[in-house]
């Protein structure tokens, strides 16, 4: 029985979790209040987790217990009668996107069996480079960006000038963006959302070929759950922004210079990922309203099989409100 539970594909169960977060937070799209967006998503996600038959522990969450009342690091979630899982949540990746009405705000969750998920501890930022299966073996964090661009373009059978690179529009990336332009590739800048960016880089249905830059370490672990099984690759290296963060990472026992692959971030293929769009993006539509219904667009994946599902759902808000304490 335990083996059966461990082998069960719960990716669709996770979609219901991210759908709940997206539906709840979408009420605040464009209102400029990041706190309301995040609170609504966290509340809804926490409630939705209660219906999943797992014994889950939050490894990457909203903060320590004294900082976040729900989905805090170390919190137990799930119905409590199934297999044990490590859980990484980002109730809203891109709260600024949602609050500001900008693209690529998503709700995301990744899980893997207990003890198989990298815990970044006090690391908040890391270097990242992500590509799809065709270019998985040609990227190198230690190589100049020009070399990576040339190698990725060759692997994809494209001209360098056709290559589209996702980069977060942050001051820390000014030189990187210049170097990409000098190499002859196209830069697609986004204000936030590096989970969405990595998903686009590994997904053959989008125009993004490569993600590069410094983004969130917790987000990298969640993304690794999505990449696992697809044949794609993401290389990461811790990149502390402050001396205090660097000292905390060293105290945690991490080698700052080490490069970690997807298989080192998530060491089991029994992992699952789900994401639901809150605001429109290249990969996922945002939450939309049609009369009494709300429409959502989601993606789910399973590491063991590499299967990805794209899910469109119509939600009857009146019926949902009768079944749940969450306001949709």
Structure report:
By secondary structure, the chain is α+β, with helices and mostly antiparallel strands. The protein is 32% helix and 26% strand. The chain contains eleven helices and 13 strands. Strand 6, helix 6 and strand 7 (186-190) form a beta-alpha-beta unit. The protein is globular, with a radius of gyration of 19 Å. The two termini are 36 Å apart.
Number of strands: 13
* Helix/strand/pairing category: alpha+beta
What is the overall pLDDT average? 93
The radius of gyration computed from the alpha-carbon positions, rounded to a whole number of angstroms, is: 19 Å
Helix coverage percent: 25-40%
Report the uncertain regions. Answer: 1-5
Major sheet attributes: 8 strands, mixed
